[in-house]
């Protein structure tokens, strides 16, 4: 999620620092598991990571055999992503661009993934429309977002009230709102799950993390990470 609290303008160093903490590494691993569960087999598929950041998911998906394109408006993120992919010994393509106007023709991808990007965008409807446009019929969208009814989101709202411009502008959605956005874009939601049910406290995270899947069976309330899969008819 890069739930480090790092504003998107800070750049790749903050994200690296987040992953270097045990809470960050644990949380990233749980979120990645949720994303991979919903993405299914990606071997040989054309996959777009929209808002790819420093390329963690790009490198993972490329290692799994996907033909991956990463798009992000931040050149520093793209540089970090290129380095990560090169270090991992895999191949991927990167393009500067925004979700609201993806620089690809219609039906270019089998899978579109977008992880913790939507909450920063003023036009979520337009972003969903774009993701649906670049998906081929039968293709799937995998979206990850910070869940509105979670302690993590509450903490960020407080940071917004205290003056953080990033978190003041961010909009955290409910599962119902994410579902509605996907459906408005003509997609059929096939899964909506929660993950990361612990608060942003290291020792508690370590105690609760082994039960995360179990919490997920109870519902999405309290989940810091919401993962949605939707298909284009
Ligand atoms: C919280 S980071 C998530 C990065 C990556 N998806 C991950 O999970 O590690 C948000 C990313 O969204 C990117 N971003 C911000 N505005 C965007 C936009 N309009 N379109 C696409 N990406 C955007 C930022 O540059 C940043 O890399």
UniProtKB/TrEMBL annotation:
Coiled coil: none annotated. Residues 48-143 form the Methyltransferase type domain. One of its GO terms (molecular function) is S-adenosylmethionine-dependent methyltransferase activity. One of its GO terms (biological process) is methylation. Keywords: Methyltransferase, Transferase. The keyword Protein transport does not apply. The keyword Methyltransferase applies. This is 2-polyprenyl-3-methyl-5-hydroxy-6-metoxy-1,4-benzoquinol methylase. It comes from Enhydrobacter aerosaccus.
């Amino acid at each position: 999620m890069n739930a480090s609290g790092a504003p998107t303008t800070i750049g790749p160093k903050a994200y690296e620092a987040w992953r270097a903490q045990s809470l960050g590494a644990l949380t990233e691993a749980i979120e990645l598991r949720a994303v991979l569960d919903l993405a299914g087999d990606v071997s040989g598929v054309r996959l777009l990571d929209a808002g790819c950041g420093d390329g963690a998911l790009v490198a993972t998906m490329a290692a799994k055999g996907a033909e991956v394109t990463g798009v992000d408006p931040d050149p520093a993120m793209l540089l970090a992503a290129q380095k990560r992919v090169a270090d991992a010994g895999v191949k991927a393509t990167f393009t500067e661009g925004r979700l609201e106007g993806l620089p690809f023709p219609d039906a270019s991808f089998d899978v579109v993934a977008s992880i913790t990007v939507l909450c920063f965008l003023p036009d979520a409807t337009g972003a969903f429309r774009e993701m649906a446009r670049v998906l081929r019929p039968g293709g799937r969208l995998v979206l990850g977002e910070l869940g509105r009814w979670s302690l993590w989101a509450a903490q960020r709202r407080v940071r917004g009230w205290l003056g953080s411009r990033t978190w003041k502008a961010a909009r955290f959605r409910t599962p119902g709102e994410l579902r509605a956005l996907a459906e408005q874009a003509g997609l059929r939601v096939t899964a909506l799950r929660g993950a990361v049910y612990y608060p942003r406290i290291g020792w508690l995270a370590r105690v609760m993390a082994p039960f995360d899947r179990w919490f997920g069976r109870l519902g999405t309330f309290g989940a810091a990470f919401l993962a949605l899969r939707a298909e284009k008819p």
